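ok so I'm stuck.
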Amino acid sequence: MAAIVHLTSAHPRYDTRIFVKQCRSLAALGHTVTLVVADALGDERIDGVQVIDVGRLEGRANRVLRTTRRVLQAARRLDADVYQLHDPELVPAGLRLKRLGKTVIFDSHEDVPAQLLAKPYLSPLARRLLSAGYAACERRAYRRFDGLVAATPFIRERLQHLHPNTVDVNNYPMLQEFDAAPDWDGKVAEVCYVGSISAIRGIRELVRACELLRSPARLSLVGSFAEPALEREVAHFPGWKRVDAHGHLGRAGVQAAMRRAVAGLVTLHPVVNYLDALPVKMFEYMAAGLPVIASRFPLWQEIVEGNGCGVCVDPGNPAAIAAAIDHFCLHPQVARRMGENGRRAVLARYNWHSEAAKLAGLYDSLLAARAQAGRPAASGARQACS
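replied:
not stuck anymore, here's the structure
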């Protein structure tokens, strides 16, 4: 068994995060797994994974510079066999670890060059320059790592040109969290949106849609606003009186919201980084037996309409969103049938079990190559076995 460290400087340790699922799966296989985070929630041990918190600093510059240094310092102290990086700003840290003879994996959660092209706080020229610059860094740095993990098949296809040892590990739901079939007799006239709330995730259109509803439906928002000014803005929309804003909730609260709802919403804007994304909320709605109201992107249409588990709409059209909400609230038998279709699709295909197997296969191949090269186990691994 190996000592494995996962590193993130930008994301908190929520259970839905793919790196948390990865850590738990590797720990269940008997590896000694540590997750280094920067979320100011303190150290703890969860399901066999040791979580080390290096503290949270405000501001993008602090995160990229000072937090990255803290994460690298913690990584070097742990002296593990394999390191898996989860944020682009950690690429230089990964190269430092490679120079120390470590096995390093980079996990690309996003198509970063495409993501930079959609950053609203950058000028158009800055977006193009940063996107091109990061693409050039990818070409140089990724080839030096031992393997790459991609969050979607689309990202995998792009990265395979840079590194042949690339696998996609999709952030699908863990079935044990959705083992109970939905109770449709306990549903209310409510739809839910779960996740970070922002303009490009469609919050203005969702609240505008609430002004146009013919049914008594309410919108349950489970998540935090990324922009406080935006929250104040939409709170003045007439449709806000139909909104229940719960803020961030733990897993129990999320599941309670899904149990009440008759449909789940994922009407993100057609920015380049969303068109080929596989948002976990969509598959969690399906796992919970909810029909999905999703943006009309070709990939999402293939999943949602191809499995008969919801409808796809123009995310910029509040009237179309309202019509879809009304349809499910006024026709609960249709909502139930589509929800059952989605749940079957998750049980058969879109679940974490098969993704965990792909991750384990990547680690098996890298650890076998490390042993064949005669690299000694890191001190962290020896201590774990002593």
